[in-house]
Structure prediction request, 241 residues.
Amino acid sequence: MRIDVLSLFPDMFTPLKQSILGKAIDKGALDFHVTDFRDYTENKHNNVDDYPFGGGAGMLLMAQPIFDAMAAVEKQAGDKGHVVLLDPAGRKFDHHVAEELAQKEHVTFIAGHYEGYDERIRELVDDEISLGDYVLTGGELGAMVIIDATARFLPDVLGNNVSADEDSFQNDLLEFPQYTRPAEFRGRKVPDVLMSGNHAKIAEWRLKESLRRTWQRRPDLLEKRQLTNKERDLLDDVKHE
Prediction:
């Protein structure tokens, strides 16, 4: 998968080249590029923003640098990819949007700054995404969150490809509790079932605990999920314990 970002602050994306994503980039599972669209300005002061027509507070990103930076990405990559605009008015990002983006061969993020965008920039855009009902100083942090969450679904990015399948929000359930050694730590014991070797019992315990955690912390997720008869029975047990 190729990911491009148009940003005024390329250095902000340095952390993405560390840890798991850094390893994915090194082995070619992820092709990552950041373009500073200030490099494509045509005015002598290298300005990328200007005052809005009609008045109003703040400055707007100009169309020209974004259009020309996007043309440069398209020339280098062969296409502009699925273009995502980071914008508070966009659809809310979640686990399912990350899975959807991971199916794309090429995604390009426009990470804006200042008050907003010249509306003509939206002509380049295929998708508008927001992290939530709040406003950040720029789109860089939002882009990094989306890239990290999306990359987890790419083949060979995680050390264990099963990990993403068992994460919280997969199938609209929060992840079950997990434990590692030692089996007892300062009087706190690991549940016996996890050391029983009985895989069927372990799977049932994990499902029940996922249902318990989801019901206690995010009951709204259960409204989205079509529970099986077994899941209903386990959830009833949880509610009556």
